[in-house]
Design a protein that fits this description.
The complex is a heterodimer. Chain A is 42% helix and 13% strand. Chain A is α+β, with helices and mostly antiparallel strands. Chain B has a three-stranded antiparallel β-sheet, with no helix packed on it. Chain B is elongated, with a radius of gyration of 31 Å. Classes of the chains: A alpha+beta, B mainly alpha. Chains A and B meet through α1, β1, α3, α5 and β3 of A and α1, α3, α4, β4 and α5 of B.
Chain lengths: 156, 361
């Protein structure tokens, strides 16, 4: 029986394993994540949904790091005020980070929690990885525990 | 129906006196106060103002830098400005004041801003990376395995990413581990002892503003003091008389003379780095200049346009701090906080629930 909300997920499931989506550095140092579908999620979520999530996140980060007229304006204004405005004002990057955490929360509630998965905001992991926690439903007697994690940590 | 059950459990568990204790954190956590993340930070940095301000462990000669600047500028304002205002123009202290404020503010921001420290890997992340690294020999007990590297292609160029044994991560491109601060820093430029901090992605623009404004300030003070002494020694009085009349100017002259060359040189060097989108670290190692014998290298991060490089380095968006100094250390990460207690109380209140559902419905 799939979980109905995040609270349910956290309170009555046990953590089986975590999958880490690494950064994609092919475009330089900008923040971008690999869209390669991990094998551990094969039985838990559709590939298209996962790719959609990662691509949307990549778009958000690209927008935050975009060098355009708005960032120039912010940068020049900041320089003119000896960067004091950074102490008073919220930067564009921070605003987009807030949007990203809301998006991740929404994705968790609508798509990932009902499938027993949980996305962690990359900012909490130093923007290095997207951590996806895979939960086992300890309450049910389904055989999902054998299906997931074919080659994961428990072996070592 | 299921949602209704969950909503009804909590108030009943708290309100009605049941033999099972209501769900709450484990007793061991109760007396310990919540700690902020800066208190458990693994690097060698020090924190002030409850985590708002970050400094490297050895603050180097930052007090000396500050002291020299304040002293020299102070002497200038006290001894030279009155004479110059009287004989030349009143703009001089104004310009000097603006430059001084810029220098001090950018210096403090360079010293106290997180340079772009990468937090260390969580244990699960480290284990995941360890799994992915091949070790074909298998007999790694007697010697340390060779440094692990990963190759990526950036802008048609092969870049090697090294594994950091301290932070247990593969370092992103342009990231380097500072041994003085014991942190991996993004876009690591260098560790500056004058400023007492690393210079990296987040505080490079402050550092650049600092050295440029400092070179203007020292050149300005040098010029003004020279003019002051020149004016004083006019009328047949001679330089010795001028120096005797204003001894502080001699000190300022010496300090400025020796500083202006080195700081102007440093500003020029960093202007070159900004224009070519290089870091001091890469320039010193010759990563992209083909010194290692590889002819096909060029800087893959450069936009090949001076204005675009300058704009991206100095006017680009300000990235956030990744180490979240003032956040609270989370209590035990396990998900099984109180599933047993909830199930127990659910069982006990089963009969009550039915009754209440009927009355509230």
């Amino acid at each position: 029986m799939p979980f109905h909300n995040l609270q349910e997920l956290r309170h009555s499931a046990s953590l089986a394993t975590k999958v880490f989506i690494q950064r994609d550095y092919s475009d330089g140092t900008i923040c971008k994540f690999l869209t390669k579908f991990p094998a551990e999620l094969d039985s838990r979520i559709e590939r298209s949904l996962f790719e959609e999530t990662v691509k949307t996140l990549n778009c958000y980060y690209a927008e935050a790091e975009k060098i355009g007229s708005q960032s120039y304006l912010e940068g020049c204004l900041a320089c003119a005020t000896a960067y004091i405005i950074f102490l008073c004002m919220e930067t564009r990057y921070e605003k987009i980070l807030k949007k990203i955490s809301m998006y991740i929360q929404e994705q968790n509630e609508k798509i990932y929690a009902p499938r027993g998965l949980l996305l962690t905001d990359p900012i909490e992991r130093g923007m290095r990885v997207i951590e996806i926690s895979i939960f086992e439903d300890s309450g049910s007697t389904s055989s999902s525990s054998t299906g997931s994690s074919p080659s994961s940590a428990t072996a070592q | 129906m299921k949602n209704l059950d969950y909503q009804q459990i909590d108030p009943q568990a708290l309100a009605t006196p049941t033999p099972t204790p209501p769900p709450r954190p484990l007793p061991e956590h109760k007396p310990r106060r919540a700690r902020r993340k800066w208190e458990v930070f693994p690097g060698k940095n020090r924190f002030c103002c409850d985590g708002r301000v970050i400094v490297a462990r050895q603050c180097g000669v930052l007090p000396l830098t500050l002291g020299l600047i304040v002293l020299t500028s102070g002497l200038f304002f006290i001894f030279d400005c009155p004479f110059l205002v009287e004989h030349l123009t009143g703009c001089i202290p104004v310009i000097g004041g603006v430059l001084f404020v810029f220098v001090i503010i950018s210096l403090l921001q360079t010293s106290f801003t997180d340079p772009g420290i990468l937090p260390r890997a969580t244990p699960e992340e480290a284990a995941d990376i360890e799994k992915q690294i091949d070790n074909p020999t298998g007999s790694s007990s007697s010697y340390r395995p060779p440094p692990r590297t990963k190759e990526v292609v950036i802008n048609q160029q092969v870049v090697k990413l090294k594994y950091c044994f301290t932070c247990k991560i593969f370092r992103p491109p342009r990231t380097s581990h500072c041994s003085l601060c014991d942190n991996c820093v993004e876009r690591f430029d260098h560790h500056c002892p004058w400023v007492g901090n690393c210079v990296g992605k987040r505080n490079y623009r402050f550092f650049y503003t600092f050295i440029v404004s400092l070179s203007f300030l020292t050149a300005f003070i040098f010029g003004c003091v020279t003019t002051h002494l020149a004016l004083r020694s006019q009328g047949g009085n001679g330089l010795v008389f001028a120096l005797q009349a204003s001894p502080a100017s001699a000190l300022e002259l010496v300090v400025c003379f020796f500083s202006v060359w080195s700081i102007l040189g440093l500003s020029g060097f960093h202007t070159y780095l900004v224009a070519t989108n290089l870091t001091t670290n890469e320039d010193i190692k010759g990563s992209w200049s083909g010194k290692s014998g590889n002819e096909d290298v060029g800087n893959p991060y450069s936009y090949n346009s001076i204005t675009k490089n300058c704009c991206s380095v100095l006017c680009g968006p300000m990235p956030p701090s990744l180490i979240d100094r003032r956040g609270f250390v989370p209590s035990d990460d396990s998900v099984q906080t109180s599933p047993v207690e909830i199930e127990l109380s659910a069982a006990k209140n089963d009969t009550n629930m039915v009754g209440r559902a009927v009355t509230s419905g």
